[in-house]
Amino acid sequence: MPDLTNHTPLRDERYYLYADNDISLRFQKRGDKFELERMEKVGDLTRKQEKLFISKNEFEALTKIAKGPIIRDSFLIQAANPQITLKVYDGPFKGLERIEVEFDSLEKAKTFSPPDWFGPEMTDSVLASDSKLINMTKDEFVAFLLKEKPLF
Fold this sequence. Notes:
Helices cover about 20% and strands about 40% of the residues. By secondary structure, it is of the alpha+beta class.
């Protein structure tokens, strides 16, 4: 794994209002910004994202009716295509670390060869999606974490 000494993480505090297999409505505090997002799966490797910025007061009001939080630090490893970030979870999901790779085209995603330091592929794992994590019990999370070993 790359040396993270000079990487400053961005802290995410994420909550969910709605999540099923294809659509989620979530909001988060990311650094000093507050965002409301709708994510929709449109293909095996593609998502459509709509984002609005909201106020701190709106964020705090929504936390009272949402599932969460999911707390994680995001380390930007590579900004260029593909964008690579390391997600290090805290709170109830402490122990989970995963790499997230985002591409600007489906073709680039299909031809991507992960570096040797990547752990096992997690795209189809329950642990690969915050919208699935949020519905897990602590015991279910620990069982999946031990079974799938998505750590580096």
